């Protein structure tokens, strides 16, 4: 485009030059024809657009129309003028040619620069395209990594949720253990204090029984009695004994004992001999009985205290766990992967749960777990539609959303004179695990929040496809909150199993293969 503009400008310059070959350059500068007219006072002048000077128009036709007498001089003038113009024109043409060459060189340089720029632009475009492809590849890799990490994060979140659940369960159990220990420590302290009190009381009683009472000397009795017979009063007797070195309290005690002794003696002397002997016997018996009563009361009190202490002790010793169970995962006590095997022992009033893998309280001894009774209170125990085994009777399960027995899964087709039994299964899970199990075995997911266990299926008729019932156990902080059963044929996959408090749990089971034996 630049070349075309240049060539057009060059053509215009040459054309104007051709028209002005016969014209005379006056040298006056101008910008328009009016300037030439004003400066030179003539209409034969015009402003050259190239040199911006005033030119005078020379016409050969005018010269030729003049008389022949002037033709010679006119021709000479024209020729002279034409030679000068030709020289000027040659000079200008040379300058123009030089300028054209320079312009061509500049245009060539511009063309080279344009070609270089175009080449550089092409290279940059290739680089940009390569970078765009790299960005697309990196974006795809990032998407893949993001999806992978998202899946792993979901798995980790599920594991962390299960671990948090186990941690909460462990924390609850630790709190219970601490509470139990504090109670036992308080009970132990109470028992220690109680036994110390019993020991002190027993020691006091024994001391009281075995201690010897303070007795009065017969000489003192006779001395005080003689003074009384002489008519002396207590102050006189007291004064004499004080002079003899007695203490006042001992004098009072001795005087009282002497009065008692004289009274008993007077009472004996006033009775007849027979009555006296009977009275003496009765008095002896009374004294013996009184002494025996004291000993009996002491023994009874000590016995009662000892019995109470033993009762407290027995209560403290016998207070313990009413439930004892073990859980083996993969054959190990603290295993994390593998088959789950339960060994449960329940102490009354606890009984086994319907699944047989835990204990529950049976306060009314009707062989039904109290928590199950609470769930079905006020509702029918057997329902057609259900979401939990607890909504069905004891011989029914909530199988695929309906209360029914395991045997009702079969229609009785085929040869029922020959019964077949399931002895092994191959189960795959959505976690990517595969298990080869026998009935009554299972495993778990979400760190134990969701367990599954294969139930023992009744025999089925030969020719009918076997069905596997799997009990799904939902737990929270180690406690069972729901149970249901999914029944699968070979190749079938279960519905998506979820947990009410763990939204990330989405678990499925598939019966890849069912192994069963039938008689020939």
Give an account of the 3D structure:
- The chain is of the alpha+beta class and 520 residues long.
- Among the domains are: 2-122, no CATH class; 327-517, no CATH class.
- 52% of the residues lie in helices and 21% in strands.
- The chain contains 9 helices and 19 strands.
- It has helices at 2-19, 33-40, 60-64, 71-210, 218-229, 234-243, 248-270, 273-318, 370-376, and strands at residues 24-29, 45-47, 53-56, 323-329, 340-346, 350-352, 359-361, 397-399, 402-404, 415-429, 434-437, 442-445, 450-454, 460-462, 468-476, 479-488, 497-499, 502-507, 509-517.
- The strands form 7 sheets. Strands 10, 11, 14 and 19 form a 4-stranded antiparallel sheet that branches. It has a 4-stranded antiparallel sheet with strand order 12-13-15-16, with no helix packed on it. Strands 1-3-2 form a 3-stranded antiparallel sheet, with helices on one face.
- The two termini are 99 Å apart.
- Residues 60-81, 279-291, 316-322 and 378-383 have low confidence and may be disordered.
Q: Which keywords apply here?
A:
alpha+beta; 21% strand; elongated; four-stranded antiparallel β-sheet; 9 helices; 520 residues; 52% helix; single chain
Strand content: 15-25%
- Kindly report how far apart the N and C termini lie: 99 Å
How many DSSP helices? 9
Radius of gyration: 66 Å
Average pLDDT confidence is 74
Oligomer: single chain
Briefly note the structural class of the backbone: alpha+beta
Biggest beta sheet attributes: 4 strands, antiparallel
Shape: elongated
Helix percent band: 40-55%
Order of helices and strands: HEHEEHHHHHHEEEEHEEEEEEEEEEEE
